Amino acid sequence: MYRISATSNLVPFLPSSSFVPTRRCYPRRATPYSRRINLKPLTSRIVLLTRRRQLGQIVEEVEAAKKRYGRLNTIVMNSVLEACVHCGNIDLALWMFHEMAEPGGIGVDSISYATILKGLGKARRIDEAFQMLETIEHGTAAGNPKLSSSLIYGLLDALINAGDLRRANGLLARYDILLLDHGTPSVLIYNLLMKGYVNSESPQAAINLLDEMLRLRLEPDRLTYNTLIHACIKCGDMDVAMKFFKEMKEKAEEYYDDFLQPDVVTYTTLVKGFGDAKDLLSLQEIFLEMKLCDNVFIDRTAFTAVVDAMLKCGSTSGALCVFGEILKRSGANEVLRPKPHLYLSMMRAFAVQGDYGMVRNLYLRLWPDSSGSISKAVQQEADNLLMEAALNAGQLDEALGILSSIVRRWKAIPWTTSGGMAAVRLEALLGFSKSILRPHLLSKVIPSEPIENIMIRFEATRPLLGTLQLKNVVMRFFKEQVVPIVDDRGSCIGLLHREDCNNLDVPLVSMMRSPPTCVNTTTSIGRVVDLVLEKKLKMVIVVHCGNLSGSGYSSKAVGAFTRAQLYRLFEPEQQLL
Fold it and tell me: Whole-model pTM above 0.70?
């Protein structure tokens, strides 16, 4: 019995009982084609960072990849273009596009052009988009792309999302040959126009387009019905929205078309509508139907919409049940982990009720259990809601401790927010004796008096000439944080701050900030103090009323008022007691 082995080119036939020697592998010389560069992980990484809107990180990793591999391919760079457009940086996208298209570059394709056109539409730079389309139409564009409907649809969708229906209709009129289906507009065009009317706060016009579609014997698809339901909700007509919903299901059963069945977007839109209408019973019915539908996967967006709608209807218990279901399902599927927004929505509802225990539990689980990054604004609001819940629960000492940590952590608290209002209520309840904000009084001056009574004479501030170089007066800024700058005529033209002194060989005028804040000599002390505290000014220039002309920036200065002066006028309230 004989068999053929892998070495049959050397020994044609070998007995089955014979020993086959192992073939030696000698190292081969590396060739450019011996190892192909796998850039798929980099592309996947760019897509992930695009969702997170981390454009800076994308640029850094792409530059590192260029240094490592020499050059990248068009697929990777197209994903970078998409990231720039998604993050709203169209200038960076254009720069990279021109770098790809120039001689010696990796080249551009139709996807590159479609991405740039979409970005120009989002940025409302419509003239540049039409110029690019003209170069493609005339055959003079780099890469010789063909003018196709996909290029037009990208720009058309961007215009419609921006609510610019006038330019969208103009684009349709100019390139109708590419977009028309057998001489009539397609269903996709009508869907885009309906979305545009909804975005431009004209939902009734979107509903009227349905009659025009039916006259042209165009059958609405699922996207059409979803847009019509959204338009009805914008109009506040839930009855018509449910009429379209039922018609959608009936047609799907009549034509045995699963693509007409309501999807998760349909149910989510209805959930938001019933939440806005505060119709709790209908909301519960539509949510139950969505859960019982076999072909609908309830994603995180849908669950979040249900919780928000429950809270709008005043059903905190229902919202808590749905929230618990989200956490239970997210144990097996991390995609369902709630976003920080959902935690804040729950905390707001329970903080108003004064349920400090529930708010604290949500606060503690926000960091380990939520999905996505937690911004600084979210952290601040979470702290404020925790303080508000303690205050509404009557736990003043606990609220005071939270307010103390807020002041230490964030250094400030906006008075216009709910947390700021809670802090004001807490201060009113505790009184000055236990105030965490350490109130100070202007006991040495009368706030209604003019500022000229306490201002420093302008000559005493020792202003510097703007043409001087920093290296000649650098020691001045070791002693003072801000110095007035004057021109050759002695008029104050700006202020130079210590932190802006970053070049010894340039004149002072090139480093100063915008013209200083000026007040009249008759302005009250209280008003000037408010300006210093609200805008965090280090110095205010005082000009004589007769010299004030135009904006007042070039008037002859007669004095100044600094933050250091203000601190010397303060006296702690406890000392007065």
Answer: no
